[in-house]
């Protein structure tokens, strides 16, 4: 059996899909996952072994969650979100540039006799107060002892669940901002219309070096042929060879009239497949090269513990503290496709 540190390293490789440096040449990722299952199940081969080793098991789950969750959040949202990870009890402050729009006004306002009106690009700071979000993986111990369930499954459930919860909170903050006081030309609430989406992209481009569309797979699929090349007076929408290749290789268009499309990762809240984590009816357009609109703070370690029910079934419980904030409203846009609700 591997020692605790070696087992932690193996768990991280399995979670990230990488190969250990000392792995045999013929090993694959499937072999790494199988090796992890074998090692974890050895720690909990029966009830007494589980009681002796559960703290080590929880520590492994905790370290995997603390390593993998931030990376999953950064991979999915790092282009439009500033993400900070701080220790327990540490205040997370974000800087926000203010005065840029005011400065633009002064560029065309020159005082008499060569006296120029002055301006200053100030910076303000604001804090995001994290909240605790938790979940539990239910273990039927009889099935666990029989080998029908294993610890690594619960580790995957917990890590994926925490990451999904971050996605949900970011999405909730973005959708709540639709009803905030913001410029009318940054919101469209309608069935899909390519020209309306193109207008939003043009607004957002003014606040950065470009714009990027972030949308659910369902929204991207609904964009249709006119998402590729707009119709003209004498011609119908057509697809370029590169777009046809993108659809062939990925199943969707990757560029909308010069604006890249990032398809957000979709999943379901449970095994019934009834509720999706990412709302299919929203698309968000963010500027590139400027200040990131969404602020995310992840505070402290993931806390893992257990609870034993009266029927001796168990729940492996975990919670993570994080917070989400929106910095500005005027420099990004949202499109709500009501037909996908």
Can you walk through the features of this model?
This protein has 341 residues and is an alpha/beta fold. The chain folds into three domains: 4-81, no CATH class; 93-124, no CATH class; 128-340, phage-related protein like fold (Alpha-Beta Complex), CATH 3.90.1690. The chain is built from nine helices and twelve strands. A six-stranded mixed β-sheet has the order 5-12-9-6-8-7. Helix 1 packs across helix 3 and helix 3 packs parallel to helix 6 (151-176). 26% of the residues are buried. The model is unreliable at 102-119 (pLDDT under 50).
Supply the key terms.
341 residues, phage-related protein like fold, alpha/beta, globular, 3 domains, 37% helix, 12 strands
Q: Within the largest sheet, what's the order of strands? A: 5-12-9-6-8-7
Largest sheet: 6 strands, mixed
What is the fold named in CATH at topology level of the largest domain? phage-related protein like fold
Name the poorly predicted regions.
102-119
Please name the fourth-level CATH homologous superfamily of the largest domain: phage-related protein like domain
DSSP summary: helix tally:
9
Question: What would you call the shape?
Answer: globular
- Intertermini distance: 51 Å
Broad structural category: alpha/beta
List the secondary-structure elements in sequence, H or E. Answer: HHHEEHEEHHEHEHHEEEEEE
Proportion of beta-strand residues: 15-25%
Counted up, domains total 3
Query: Tell me, what is the CATH class of the largest domain?
Result: Alpha Beta
What integer is the average pLDDT? 78
CATH architecture annotation name of the largest domain: Alpha-Beta Complex
Number of DSSP strands? 12
Helical fraction: 25-40%
Q: Gyration radius, to the nearest Å?
A: 25 Å
